[in-house]
Sequence to fold (636 residues):
Amino acid sequence: MINFNNITKTFGIQTVLDNVTFRINQGEHVGIVGPNGAGKSTIFDLLIGEITPDGGTVEYPKGSKFAYMRQQPKAPDTQTTLINFTEDALPEVAAIEAEMEELEHDLSDEKKLKRLGELQIKYEQLGGYTLRHKAEAALSGLGFKEDEMHRNFNEFSGGWQMRAELARTIISHPEILLLDEPSNYLDIPAVEWLQKFLNNFDGTLLLISHDRYLLNSLTNKTLEVANAQTEKYPGNYDYYAEARVERQQQTEAQLEKQGKVIEKTEKFIERFRSKNTKATQVQSKIKMLEKMEQISGPTRIRSKGSIRLENPPGCGHEIVRLDDASFAYDCDNFILENINLRITKGQKIALIGLNGRGKTTLLKMLSGHVPLSKGKRTCGPRVISGYQSQEIADTIAETETVYSAVKSVANEVSDQTIRKTLGSFGFSGEAIEKSVTVLSGGEKIRLAFARLLIKPPNFLLLDEPTTHLDIQAREGLEKALRKFPGTVCIVSHDIEFIKNAAETVIEMTPPGIKPYAGDYNYFCRKKQMIEQQAGNETQNQSSSTQTVDKKELRRLRAQQRENTKHLTNIIKNAEKKLDELEQSKAYLHEQMAQGGDVNYQDLNIKLHKIQLKIDDYTKQWEDASMEIERLEKLTK
Fold:
């Protein structure tokens, strides 16, 4: 269990945590939420001892094994391969492996043989024999291709290096896993894989995230960090959001009721203070006010700025059309080819697909930011495009102020309109004179929106617009987009954001695309149906259109039942053999542990042979189980 006892932490003049106390029990999966800058990452840094509190204590079981994935991990400068970097999740395993290799070259005395046996036991207990398989599975799930496993780690971009760091962190299987915004730089398939992987994590999980999909599906407790205080809720993010509103409403009602009592009491005291006949009653009322408990509850959390979309100018029904459109950065390698797509007024579209599948390229083709290599782009009458790239916040000159950054792209717009627009994005008063260099990531995104919308477009193309936005800002953007009467095309890895902001999905299937006439939930259902239909087709199905008659179908099902029976026997036999081998293995380990007159070399040879048999029967079990699963799908 983890205890934060009366923790206070101050940075400069800002108190981030003020006399905070909370407990996290063993095995809990806790989502840590709150506005940007509220102190969520500070809790992690205090927990691992990277920083010390100004007051209070942090307690956890001595010897607890931590793994910490930072929001912005510093990529190591290493010449190792991707798979070796990821496999190095457990340094103690690498150290044991090195010592085992050294001992295996010199088994000249009994002490070395005994030491080798001890190391082999520990190596197995730590999962050394399966570590590479876990590393490969995690890397594959997070989007790496098989032929990339042995590439040099330094050859990958920063985003892909972060994926490798995430893979290395989660396969280390710690007792306490700390993840700070793990879905940054992940596409939707990788986020969904991560959710499935972490769903089986049996340790204590602390998750800082703005991704409501992960918070809802992975956590059973929520710790709110806001206004230098914390509050723990017994449920996931949706539970927390609803419970917080209820508590806030109850608190406000109690405060209002208490305020009326105080006002009435103060009027009584003021009215009768000077009258001797009422002196006792007046003193009683004064004591009542002094003893009255102050009602406390959750204060309103306000995002540091909102996003408001003004109504755009009118335009024609057809927004943009692509006819046999293709794009390539060189003559031979087409990113997208022969795209036919028609977008009409008012559509809210999400582009879905793995990173590198052409989502950003399609946005640029639709907006006209890249010339087509082949085909035609037709823009509808009076359509004004507003394209926001992933890097748009970083393209604002750091020499600009907030005000001049907007003025520079809308010189003809009045000063009053610019100030009004900036105010709607959270920049008011002296804040409009802040230098771009001092803005946070979220502030830069809001400034980028202000620059984009100072002259309202009626066709918005947004590439990862939620980056650096906290949950409140994301929810605000969702609402603004739903109310926006214009047309929107979005690329985002935030599943909840897409669910709430888009009504149509286009899946990237390079070199083409596949539209779905429904929202993200509809897209998921259709994909599941397609996969089930594909699974129901037999491997030996003829390419011809001839239908198998009922007699033949009965024969096939009888054959499948016979195959299943045979496979079940294989599984039972493998399980029996595995039990016997594990018992033999345990017996040999006991002999090694007892010491004395023991032939360690002979025991190690026997252990090695047993392990080979275990691997063989395990593979038999896995293959037979997978084949049964496949046959069951075919007979549905």
Notes: The first helix runs from residue 40 to 47. The chain has four domains: 1-65+174-235, 241-291, 318-527, 550-634.
